[in-house]
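#struct-pred
JK: can someone run the complex with magnesium ion? inputs below
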Amino acid sequence: MTKRQSNMWLRMLSLLLVCLLLTGCTGGTDTGVQPGLIPAAQAEETPDPNKKTTGVGFYFDTVVTLTLWGAPEDLVNEVWAECSRYEKLLSKTIQGSDVSRINNAAGQTVTVDPETWEILRRAKDISALTGGAFSITIAPVTALWTFTGVETNVIPTDDKRLSMLHLVDDQKIVLGENNTVTLPAGMQIDLGGIAKGYIADKVAELIREKAYAGIISLGGNVYTVGRKPDGSRFSVGITNPEETYTYKGIIYTEGCTVVTSGTYERGFNFGGVRFHHILDPKTGWPAQSDLVSATFVMDSSMTADALATACIVIGSEKALELAASQGLDAMFIKKDGSVLFTDGFEQKYNYQ
Ligand code: ADP
Ligand code: MG
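RT: done, structure tokens with the ligand placed:
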């Protein structure tokens, strides 16, 4: 097993533990139903809310954990099928994906899936809203860096890095009618900062439609649907950037997403400096703001995903302004360990 694989499995194991902690215990899969009291057909239509199902998958280079209550037997597999379908559309490394086709089109127009088109539209809007701090056209710059955390870490030369910056501008993505996309030759896109949010939204829709309650976690994107069968809200831990297997705090939510971007997620330390995977589109260098973690709690996981990434770039002052201007709930952790909240956040989510 390579070091990277063993890291991945270690992470999967710890995330599974985290997931179990997050979702608490509702008495396993014992439904408490006496055999024969409910006709089989009816029992199948309305699974017992207490019946808990869990699953762990690996998509988008990320561990995905799923916990469902009162779900039909096949829902976990349906979720994995959706994750796989989205990976095949949105991954920049899978040949033939929409993103690969856009990146390889050399200035030509391509027709994409309506969902890909919609993600690009939202990405472009959020890029405008954040003054370009969020830019999916960061791809030619991310391609110069490697943040795997093992021997292969790469810091690009200044020449290389600076020569790519003119290719970063989301407003140059042309979104035409009938789901067409035209990217100027040389430019590339990377949906790593938004795709998981979109998928979390879609999985949440599935859970809402078919199960009593549930929670999905795709890396930094958590979506909680409904309440646990005992009536309590879900608890979601906010990772402590200094000690990533502990929590800085816990919040209690129902029916919304909690999305965190952190400089601790992917990266490496070299010469006393933290090199991490969230790049400043203006410099092509890992964002150097005063923030190490940004969290949004809201309805749209896609928007939260992109905004959280942008906030790491723009820093605490502008991040608080941005959240307030959009009427959104957010919390930010600064390099010095202090925590900032938008108004009322701690009370609303019972932050502890
Ligand atoms: P994670 O993927 O760990 O949840 P984020 O949601 O913050 O973290 O997204 C980071 C990913 O987004 C990077 O790995 C890269 O693919 C891409 N990215 C890096 N910098 C930016 C940026 N300034 N704007 C948009 N996407 C970015
Ligand atoms: Mg993001």
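RT: quick notes.
Residues 93-182 form a domain with the T-fold fold (CATH 1.10.3980.10).
The pocket of magnesium ion (ligand 2) is lined by residues 193, 261, 305-306, 308-309 (CB under 6 Å).
JK: thanks, will look after standup
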